[in-house]
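User: I want to check something. If I give you two sequences, will you return the structure for each one separately, not as a complex?

Assistant: Yes, each is folded on its own. Here is the first sequence with its structure:
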Amino acid sequence: MAGVLAPPRGARVSTSVVRTLGPGDIAALRLPGRHGAESVRRLLDRYPGRSVWVPSTLEYALISPWRNRSEIAHVENLVAVRHLEELLRAAVERCADQGDELMLTVELDSQRSPARYERAGLEMLEEVITYEIGIGREPWSSSDYLRLVRVDADDEAAIDLVTSIDQASFPWLWRNNRAEFDVYLQTPGVEVWLVEADGEPVGYFGVTLFPDWGHLDRVAVIPERQGRGLGLETLGLAVDAMRKQGARRVGLSTQRTNRRSQRLYERFGFQRTPEHDYRLFGAWCHPERRAGLLGVR
């Protein structure tokens, strides 16, 4: 992971203006349409003690689990003009109090200065870069020994297997848990496929299909079978699966630090689309535990 920063220590200066957001405060907020009062109430019930607001200005930060992982907090919505720094600092404090490991926020404008996050004690953790490829009508020529098995939303054993492959294949921040897969498989347009070789699972991929294009959400090969060309074959199968459903172009994303995946996508023919890149900023709630989570010695 590119950068890490502990939340600021010492006096909690943010508490002078920032308060923890509770259900009784919702009516005072000026909520946009997609964050109506009922959805905010459900969020506070499910993930309490982390969202914050400034009563004097009605600024707020809504905090939700990152990818359905309760140990990683995520700034789902931030409305702040005068007290952005105080809101973010206070949110980190609340997340630490709740036992979370990390609080992060997504910055979609990759050209914006990181200073506003740095002043709040956050630092860039990852830069996510994007790719796209146009696909024709001819299938990718893949090996005959690979077999695809569709994962259904009610197949408990298959979902558990995909979850174990995912967690073995991705770094800590990017792993999906079972709860995330349950939600993902219920999402319109999503397909998840196990990849088998000689009857044994060796990887999987997940895609989301839209009218005439698709997004490759996940592609993984189990660590002990990597380095044998299975990544390229699995990528080809994923692109073919989307082509068969009418996709004429495919997009995907990866981390800038993941040179291995970038080489794979570029070898296949994917081209960079930097206008869609974004960054993750965050702060570790308990920095002394960071090394163990990331497998750093």
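And separately, the second sequence with its own structure:
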Amino acid sequence: MKTTSRTVSVDVDPPYSVHVGAGLIGDVARRVETWPRAFVLTDANVDRLFGDIARSWPNSFVNVVAAGEHSKSFATLEQVLDAMVAAELDRSSGLVAFGGGVVGDLGGLAAGLFHRGIHYIQVPTTLLAMVDSSVGGKTAVNLAGGKNLAGIFHQPVEVFADTRFLASLSDDEYRSGLGEVVKTAVLDGPLFDVLVARSDEIMRRDAHALVDIVEVCVRTKATIVARDPFEKGDRKLLNLGHTFAHAIEHAAGFGRVPHGVAVATGVVLAAEAGRAAGLAVGASLIESLRRLLTTLDVPADLATLAQRYDVELGPDEIVLAMARDKKSRHGAPRFIIPLAPGTVLRDVELPEAALSSALTASAWI
């Protein structure tokens, strides 16, 4: 059953719309049929569950990559680009990124490179992709030295976030999305209170609650992206928790820890490290974050995260990985530090002692 979709405008150049609702996947054909040839990129898991939908779109050629973070590589990117050539795409063709964040990042990068840029749409199937990676035009693959180190900005021409797909997610995939939702709530103070009030509905994956939450997250990101499309200023706020998260993912081995789960733990670590550095981080924020994440069954500290995903996460290894982060300057990482819901600082360089203190305490809770 299709609900009335909500539409969020992303006011970049050129602008595009993000459609959020349950049952709007049928609208994708409207966009695809405007292209003489459509290249649908998806992964094995999405193809198994929803491949018949992709194959019903007009003028389409479906290409399936392996599921998981390992597909965000130059090797897979080359295979995708070769498949686009074999499918006889040209500059009037389009690409559909039909899947989660990995497919969205990989597909967006392939679209941006092919013939120096063709149109593409995002059809996210995970909560994380709906609230974050499908919006804003960031595309990338990973390198051996770190996550998302090779990429470009290439905005989609439309995004279709059908929340019915969220019923198919594993608990881990759903928790990963919730991690990004909590990050957004720290940036947008009112959303934090909504998450606390509606946590039971969220855990039940209530259809109405999910449409509401996804819409608010998309609006929050769209507002920030419109102010700063190329991450020169305020868009850096969206990296809250990510410097820690990317280091956690690198130290654990890409794909071992879900990205949004690492982000959620990273948000708490950013608050704790900021407090250790003497910044005005309220103790109530840290406690509220821990309580909310525990209610949503998302790890709030390194000890819980390491136990759940059976990984070893040494503080020294995480500090070393952070020095390689693309947001670092001369080996010194920069952080987004939350002071309270809706109040954050950006481009903060923290003393190594504060980092070590926060990481060590989190690893031994």
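Because they were folded independently, the notes below concern the second chain alone. Residues 6-168 form a domain with the Rossmann fold fold (CATH 3.40.50.1970). The first strand starts at residue 6 and ends at 10.
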